Amino acid sequence: MLPFEEARARILQDAQLLGSERVSLRQAAGRVLAEDVRASTPLPRFDYSAMDGYALSAASVTGDGPWSLPLRGESRAGAPLARLEPNGICRIFTGAALPAGADAVLATEDALERDGRVEFSWVVKAGQHVRRRGEDLAEGALALEAGMLLGAYHVSLAAALDRPELLVARRPRVTIVGTGDELRAPGEPGPVTSIPESNGLGIAVLAESAGARVQLPPRIADDAATLRERLAQALRDTDLLVTIGGVSVGRYDLVRPALEAAGASLDFWKVQIKPGKPLVHGRCGNTRILGLPGNPVSAQLTFSLFGLPLLRALQGQRSPLPYESAVLLAELRQKPGRLGFYRARWSPEGVLPIDNQASGNVLSLAHADALVLVPADSAGYDAGERVQILRLGAL
Question: All domains of the chain, ordered by start, with CATH?
Answer without folding.
Answer: 4-16+171-313 (3.40.980.10), 21-43+144-169 (3.90.105.10), 48-131 (2.170.190.11), 324-394 (2.40.340.10)
